[in-house]
Structures are given as C-alpha cells and as structure tokens.
Amino acid sequence: MDKTFCSLTECEFLSLSTNSIDRMGSLAGMTKLKTLSIGRNNLKKIEKLDDVASTLEQLWMSYNSVSSLDGLSCLKNLQTIYMSNNAIKSFDELDHLAGLENLKEVLFYGNPMYEEVADQDVARLHILSRLPNLTKIDGVLVKPQEREEAKTILVN
Q: Do residues 128 and 142 lie in contact, with contact meaning Cβ atoms separated by under 8 Å?
C-alpha cells in the first residue's frame, strides 16, 4: 500500500478493494478513519492497524487469504468485521476478538472453520459462545434462544 494514504487525514472511509494488494501498509496520519474496505485482495496477514486502532469501527476484509485474526485485538472501537471467504481454519482464532467489547456484527461464512461443525447453525453457536456481545452473525440477527444455547458450548 502506498504511503500517500497517510496524507488523507480527514478520510473516514477508505476503499482499497479489488486491487491485488498483498501486504498492508501504514495508515499513520489517518486519524479519522472509521471504515476500511480491503476485500478481494491477496492479503494473508492482518497487520499495521495500530495507527487507526482508536477510530476504526468497520473492517471489511472478505475474499482474501487471511488465516489468523491476530492483529485485531488493538481495535477497541471495532463494531463490524467482515471476514468471509478467507482461510480461517479454527474457531480458536476468535479468541483474538474476545476483548473487543464494541464488536456487534461479524461475517465469517466461507472460512474452513465451518467445516469443523455439522452446519451453519452450530457454527453460529461456536462464534456466539466466544463473542457473546454480538447482535448479528453472518448477516442474521442473534436470537435469544441462540444466546442460551451458546452458553452450553465449552470453550477451551
């Protein structure tokens, strides 16, 4: 990613989708960034988000090759993350998001971790058991009954 993004000090929404980006660059100086759309690229790793940690509310990273959610725990104001169709193999990766109290909406459908469970309903329960503050998973509102069921799932 180009260093000229750092001069976009008033930018609140940055869309870099579908650009064959394979590595995230510094976002230093983007002190008002609220939404980063970086889907449909060639990213394998989440990195260099510290500079927007206090402002970023939405991260759209679907259709990349990301295999770990490491690098997201600094985003204390994150409310929404779209990570569908990446390479996340285990629900254990969700532990990187556990401290994000403002996180309300996630999209993980299409990741290999869904192959660990019988169906999408069970996957939702695994996600909700690790991230109990969510209100929407994979585009569907969380139901009170799901909240109760998720409490019965043992998390390591």
A: yes
